[in-house]
Amino acid sequence: MTLxxxxxxxxxxxxxxxxxxxxxxxISEAYFRNELSLDEFSQKAAAIRKNNLAFLKDADLxxxxxxDFSLYDSILDLILALDFIPERFxxxxxxxxxLYFAMARGYQKDGRNAVALSLKKWFGxxxxxxxxxxxxxxxxxxxxxxxxxxxxxxxxxxIAVRPVxxxxxxxxxxxxxxxxxxxxxxEESVTAVYRELxxxxxxxxxxTEFTALEPSLSMDLSAADIAMFRRMHERLLxxxxxxxxxxxxxxxxxxxxxxxxxxxxxxxxxDLSGNNRNRDLLREVSFKPGFELGLGVVxxxxxxxxxxxxxxxxxxxxxxxxxxxxxxxxxxxxxxxxPVSLQNEKTLSPEKLKHLAFAAEKTAELRELxxxxxxxxxxxxxxxxxxxxxAPRFAADAELQSRVTGLKESDFARxxxxxxxxxxxxxxxxxxxxxxxxxxxxxQTAEVRALRKKFRLGEITRESYDAEIRKLIAACIREQENTxxxxxxxxxxxxNDMVEFFGRKLEGYIFTDNxxxxxxxxxxxxxxxxxxxxxxxxxxxxxxxSYAASLSEKPVKGMLTGPITILxxxxxxxxxxxASSVMELALAIRDEVLDLEKAGIRxxxxxxxxxxxxxxxxxxxQEAYLTLAVNAFRxxxxxxxxxxxIHTHMCYSEFGEILKSIDAMDAxxxxxxxxxxxxxxLRELxxxxxxxxxxxxxxxxxxPRIPSVAEFKSTIKRILEILPREQVWINPDCGLxxxxxxxxxxxxxxxxxxxxxxxxxxxxxxx
Length: 767
What we know:
Blueprint: E1 9-10, H1 23-32, H2 38-58, E2 65-66, H3 74-81, H4 87-90, H5 96-105, E3 107-109, E4 112-114, E5 119-121, E6 128-130, E7 133-134, H6 145-156, E8 162-166, H7 168-174, E9 176-177, H8 183-205, E10 209-213, H9 223-237, E11 243-247, E12 267-271, H10 278-282, E13 292-298, H11 308-321, E14 326-331, H12 350-353, H13 359-373, H14 379-388, H15 398-405, H16 418-429, H17 446-456, H18 462-483, H19 500-503, E15 506-510, E16 517-520, E17 523-525, E18 529-536, H20 542-549, E19 558-561, H21 563-568, H22 578-598, E20 603-607, H23 622-637, E21 645-650, H24 659-664, E22 669-672, H25 680-687, E23 693-696, H26 709-722, H27 741-766
Parallel strand pairs: 1-14, 2-8, 7-9, 8-10, 10-11, 11-12, 12-13, 13-14, 19-20, 20-21, 21-22, 22-23
Antiparallel strand pairs: 3-4, 5-6, 15-18, 16-17
Helix pairs in contact: 1-2, 7-8, 8-9, 17-18, 22-23, 26-27
């Protein structure tokens, strides 16, 4: 698929894997439930993969990726392909997909037990990857059979493809060293086996070109990082019998751009969306004739139509600066971050749909931009696109803008200071040592989903629906009381999603029918779309929270989603500043918090699960984001009484470098994911002098494993070795909606049995 440099081309780095109707999710879950055999699952997955390739061929793209399709995660694919298997999984004596999914989901069968690989967020997105581990049991070697089969499959379909996988530098940078070997040995091992993988794919699948995706180049790189990148890629490229293209996304590559022209690549693909510096950096380098430049002028992360005039200006400027290169118009990142197609959208009006572009539509945009540049596009294509941007898309709410600009410094400060508040709250609640709770949601069972569907289709009335939801809440409250939890939740059975639920109750949002995006593995989310100014016009949760609180003498948390998380798990408007939407959301949540307090809710959790994931990759850009996030959270909670306890929760991410900002949010209690990261966060909390009380997750809710009482006790004791017991709460990693009742209640019963035993030991010790 070597491209001539006489005409502009079009291509992408990746396409959504889930299928137009989330087919991959459903067949995977059927396989996990033993409702599909391995052969049936493999055949159905292959059909989705082939359908993607056929679509991209029909879309008339010049560069069609292969190996971007994954059954769970591309990093996990590499872990298997490089045989980077940690010792605990080798000891299971599993093979193929059984081993693959054991690493993703954990394993517990026939007395064999292994905790899953850690999940972390992928480069400022809502996608999760599985973290490779380099322990003393890892013995890398090429295991490329499943990759060569996929490439042969494409060849048999008559589709020319360019394979794409995460590159060796990014793989090494993301790997956690858990054994006695050092970073130098990791670098050596990854480079050698990755090179052998490419040689194997060349020999056995006949590939002649390959794209190595290196998103780690968009991070701040030290001199040692840059040297490591050069060493790994120079060794990789040396005398390699195929062309290698360097793919980058999620920002600029300022630290290595000057090195790229002389390193032996056949081409470089760049993110040119937003305001990153790649456009300026291109002016500072030159490339050999025929070098391929992939220009990511179409966003791979939002769902808004591309402004062709702006994109064409960028491309033509680069063409002028680099006249002898081969230009490929592409997306700024893999399209796995956007929904599949607008074809399945039946509810939104044509007036709104005309502003949107999902993955299928973005391929059409790439083709049209290519054809405009090549002079082969019909004139009405440009004019039709220009019409979309001639006038403002919406009218801003002047009254709401005035409320935002009128905020005072006191609106962001809670009184009295946290230490004094916590002492007062201890007197009010009188919790036992190690108070225990859950994060919020309980299983969204088939019964719950069927009930919601009946209501959505108009088969039952609002009154009937609400009555059934209240029955589920009452049963959940009783079960939590039986388990012995100290702070209860209502279970969130009325919520299809922690962001969409609130979006549907606020002005300023629109909603898709089928705008699903992969978050991790089989987990898909359907982000709502911010259309305009966001306003709360009525209470959001007060009625249901008051009902739940009336069912127990124990406190029942009011459950809200925080403003940064609502923004980050929505598709934000491209033409509204993020800070404006965040402050509008913060005011809406603040009003709800105050109404909950008036209704007698004594503990209110304002989840900021996604605060960390959109932290800018470059340190120079982080302070402004963190200041906005901290201020927005403080605005939501600053108006409550001292004895009202404010909780928050944060999901899978690295927090060490932003702990001061998290503490500055001034919550009373925060729960973190911690189990898959082996509690490494706790030492950082201690060393940072973290003042907020902490609930580190004591078990992984993304795995079907059921930890024993002994395992829970061991985990809790390790926590108490690091943090004082007065600071510690006990809870799972995250909400329980994706699990089943058959897993959830045994886990919680074991967790509480362990808590009771440790409390007894502490009491005996202090007697």
